[in-house]
């Protein structure tokens, strides 16, 4: 299967670290030291998970307008839904006006991008689809408490869409070579480390250290596993795109793998933690730089816990 196009949507409004300094006394330097984040995007009034997903999808299709002919699957992913019934996948289908095709919305926290792609892999393998939209969208600020000094400064909003086909459509397509996902709900403080209970407190992260530890371990381990089973070494990786949760996590994973800093793609400095959309946004920013033979690994970790890694080749 092949990624034919990737496009992102980011809200226009920028929230800098100084906002949190004024709000709760967290200094710009302290936030950068702990997270690497300098600013993040915040959806405007009238914007939400569904509207951002639609905009990202329309941008992807504008770059590949022929793709909609034969589109037969839409998979959406988010843990910050605008509507749990008229889901993000339904909203995209409605906007595209493509009737009578499967629409699926899933959530496995910040690792949902790879689970969504894995669903497409299954549909393709069973012969039930051949062209799919995968859209990942997060409206973190709808649930976030900015006065929370533990995690209130981490979150940003954004969306991205991937157009995926069973057959190669263009020379610039990225081939999906391999994909591994797994749940890790049995380890550490998985059941309490990051939660979003809308009727209670919203989006909170009371056990950040536990998240940090397991994210570093699982992302490095699954990346090594992916490379080993494809008989590749770290020197073969052109870019590593990790889940955009914390710059210190990225650095730790790079160190564990033995990859130089310049091989990692990072957008958390400018966007904050955009959940399952973060790695897809980073892929959208990186895709044009890739040349034939380049290999990209996307590795993710989500609260709950869950993890995964995917190998792409140009």
UniProtKB/TrEMBL annotation:
<dbReference type="GO" id="GO:0006633">
    <property type="term" value="P:fatty acid biosynthetic process"/>
</dbReference>
<feature type="domain" description="Beta-ketoacyl-[acyl-carrier-protein] synthase III N-terminal">
    <location>
        <begin position="106"/>
        <end position="172"/>
    </location>
</feature>
<dbReference type="InterPro" id="IPR013747">
    <property type="entry name" value="ACP_syn_III_C"/>
</dbReference>
<feature type="domain" description="Beta-ketoacyl-[acyl-carrier-protein] synthase III C-terminal">
    <location>
        <begin position="227"/>
        <end position="313"/>
    </location>
</feature>
<keyword id="KW-0012">Acyltransferase</keyword>
<dbReference type="InterPro" id="IPR013751">
    <property type="entry name" value="ACP_syn_III_N"/>
</dbReference>
<keyword id="KW-0808">Transferase</keyword>
<dbReference type="Pfam" id="PF08545">
    <property type="entry name" value="ACP_syn_III"/>
</dbReference>
<dbReference type="InterPro" id="IPR016039">
    <property type="entry name" value="Thiolase-like"/>
</dbReference>
<dbReference type="GO" id="GO:0044550">
    <property type="term" value="P:secondary metabolite biosynthetic process"/>
</dbReference>
<protein>
    <submittedName>
        <fullName>Ketoacyl-ACP synthase III</fullName>
    </submittedName>
</protein>
<dbReference type="Pfam" id="PF08541">
    <property type="entry name" value="ACP_syn_III_C"/>
</dbReference>
<dbReference type="GO" id="GO:0004315">
    <property type="term" value="F:3-oxoacyl-[acyl-carrier-protein] synthase activity"/>
</dbReference>
